[in-house]
Design goal:
Blueprint lengths: L1 H20 L6 E9 L4 H20 L5 E9 L4 H14 L4 E3 L4 H14 L3 E3 L15 E3 L8 H10 L6 E5 L2 H5 L1 H10 L8 E3 L5 H12 L5 E5 L2 H13 L8 E4 L1 H4 L7 H6 L4 E5 L5 H17 L10 H20 L6 E2 L15 E2 L2 H9 L2 E4 L2 E4 L10 E7 L2 E9 L3 E3 L43 E5 L9 E4 L6 E4 L1 H12 L6 E5 L11 H6 L8 E7 L9 E2 L8 E9 L14 H24 L9 H13 L9 H30 L3 E3 L4 H7 L3 E4 L4 H8 L6 E4 L2 H10 L8 E5 H10 L4 E8 L4 E5 L5 H13 L2 H11 L23 H51 L3 H16 L1 H11 L1 H7 L5 H16 L3
Parallel strand pairs: 1-2, 1-3, 3-4, 4-5, 6-7, 6-8, 8-9, 9-10, 18-21, 18-22, 26-27, 26-28
Antiparallel strand pairs: 10-15, 11-12, 13-14, 15-16, 16-17, 19-20, 22-30, 23-30, 24-25, 24-28, 24-29
Helix pairs in contact: 2-12, 2-13, 3-4, 5-7, 8-9, 13-14, 15-24, 15-25, 17-18, 17-19, 17-26, 19-26, 26-27, 26-30, 28-29, 29-30
Length: 938
Amino acid sequence: MEIANRIILLLLLSAGIGVAQNSSRGTQEVHVGVILDLGSLVGKIAITSISLALEDFYAAHQNYSTKLVLHIRDSMSDDVRAAAQALDLLENYKVETIIGPEKSSQAIFISDIGTKSHVPIISFTATSPTLSPSSLPYFVRATLNDSAQVSCIASTINAYGWRKAVPIYEDTEYGRGIIPYLVDVLQENNVHVPYRSVIPPSATSDQITKELYKLMTMQTRVYIVHMSSVLASTFFIKAKEVGMMEKGYVWIITDGVTNLIDSLHPSVVESMNGALGIHFYVPKSTELNNFTTRWNMRYQIDNPTDPPSKLSIFGLWSYDTIWAVAQAAEKVGLSNATFRKQISKQKSTDLGALGTSSNGPEFLKEILQSKFIGLSGRFDLSDRQLTVSTFQIINIIGKGWREIGFWNAQNGLSRRLNKSQSATIYSSLLPDLNPVIWPGESIDIPRGFEIPASGKKLRVGVRSSGYQQFIKVEKDEITGATKATGLSVDVFEEAVKILPYAVPYEYVLFGSPEDTSSGSYDDFVYQVNIKVYDIVIGDITIRYNRTFYADFTVPYTESGIAMVVPVRDSVNKNTWIFLKPLTPGMWLGSIVFFIYTGVVVLSLEFLGNNKNVRGPIPRQLGIMIFFPLFEEKEIMERFLSRIVMIVWLCFLLVVTSSYTANLTSMLTVQQLQPTVNDIQELLKSGEIVGYHRGSYVKGLLEELGFGRSKIKPYDTPDDFHNALSRGSGNGGIAALVHEVPYIKLFLAKHCEGYTMVGPIYKAAGFGYALAKGDPLLGDISKAMLNVTGGDTMIQIEKKWMGYQNDCQNVGPITGPSSLTFANFRGLFILTGAASTSSILIALIIYAYKKQHRSTKVMQNDNKQVGNNITDGANNEPQDGNQEAVTEESVQFRGDGEENRRLHEQTGSEQVCDSNPHTSPAACNDSAAIHRGESSTVL
């Protein structure tokens, strides 16, 4: 009955379209084949759109000289039948192009036929990336390549922080085509694909249920579904039945289903509730609204027995395809279209006997140049397929869906298509999308990862360490169970307790419990890559080469590689140790300022006419040395000298106190210094160094240039101690190169006599290793940060390490060193400034007084001369007497300097007595000056 209805529908459509096409006379007919599955939802939607497209196009272009004549064929979802229909259209109807077929598997063969016959094959539904225009030059994809949506899917997964996803696809050309592109993009975004679920298109409900139960036993809860709408309907109904549409699950559906979401049965849509879908975005327009109304009415006429359906993007693409073909036909004309028949002696079924269209290449060229704004948006076939524009991300709720955001290549994910529009500000920790109602009507973002209750336990790989404080592994003789203890184990167990979900685990031994050298740590870490363990714990250093096959958690210990070397007393307590508290520069500076201060004090007193500083040069040198050491009030008379002396005494007090303290420390405290300060010293001197057997430090030492004969392996801390105590020259080692956490353990037991130098090399510390892309990594790293950042880690370290930090040799040793000039720079500046400013002030005062005395003497001289002249005028002296007065004046002026010196030494009375030529007035003035100067000393 169904086949009969489809045949009747096909005849009616062909007759109706033929009548419409032949209603106008004088037009050139262009034969076009259409191959669709008329019983499928997509086929029914497309046929209605195609009939409306013909009516609308020729109603808008009544003056065109060409008219399309469609020859519609039903493939009945069969690849062989579709190929036979294509051959029939080419052989018997000489069609210039074929629109369709619907499936990608059909399009591959039919496109190859089109290439041989030079007939363009245009499909608006064949989306598989395996259909490559480069290998099929006459194939045109009037739709999007499936690979166009993989970046949108990967961006969505990244936005929610999921690190694993399982693709579920049908085993057809359409289903398989997208997978390589999807996996590549996911891996580029650090999303791991642990499993691929393949569903045959003919799978029964039991087969689907069995596969779903298999998925439930896995940890991953993020699924990407890529299949036809028919198979997807059955799949999601069964997924709901088995409980996989509940809280914690994530479903992402590709556009093959979501583009038809409005036409699916309500029960199917309800079974998809909570899923995300990738939907091709169609811009809204008045033309689209009007066409949708007309299309709904026509669809009911074309399919009177079917339930109402809604227009999908496939209907819009089929509509725009007819417009593109009709425009190309008009430009080419096709008035002289012919098919050149190839001569073949084989049977008529030989494909080589097909004719070739003379206008095919030109017709294809015009089709590829089609660019216009159609009902689906921008319709551009210049790349032999539609270009990626914008995808709409939807959330299926109830019997419908709602928009949660958009994606395009320029802006990535966003809540709004136009980012310039105002939007609610979300937390930076949330994706830039609208809230989602997840499966189970949950509003919490799923983790995308669960430990299944019925699944196996987490296999935790462990191995014994040479330092059992970190990890010690034992085997229970009765039960055979593996038991692990130590700091590394406690940190792991505390982190697991903090996880927001239960994680059952069991310890699995690597090697033997007693043998700590069974296999390298690289081999141990590699076990997670080959799925022997889910996670490996212990004192595992995070190294670059190990990240190629494993992912590491955050470190839980300090990082770095350092050296353990013996220490020795750095101070030689010999005869000249009293000189070591001060550096040579400090000694020299102190002596220079010592002499300078003495010179300044002597000069100040000399300028102040202190008779106690007069005398021979040896006496003045003695006074110069004497002044800075002692304070004598009888010797220092000037106020400036006392200021200089106070500052100098403060300087001496600080320096002598520091000198005494430093010398005492050198004499009483043992100052230990490492015998080696740099690993390059060991390399140059050819010393032997040690390392822990099995550690990667051996490779590091060889990279630094140490020969194999200069490197010795040891197993235990006692072995290290014995080797270090013997030294390199006595069959031991000069230094131990080890990781910092181990060194602290060693120094906690052997503190005296050794110290740590470094770190000499950076390392990331100890962490746990998991398989690449394991979603547990993020959760356990967060939990470890919680453990290591609180009091829990302190208690764990005290439990296993004790108080190893009490050893004073851990870290760089800084003993008392000699005092330098720079340590007392401020004091030197202060005493130097005080001395220099004092001597400058004294010189200014001295110059001022000297100038003042000279002025007074000149004034007195002039006054005396004036008195003598006056007296001569009154007494009318003789010429001889005048001459005597003049001589007396000259004699007085000539002896002025001598009188001044005598005045300074003996006083005014002695000057007047020793020089009979000095007038009484000059003697009185000089005495007054002398008395005034002696009254105040500065």
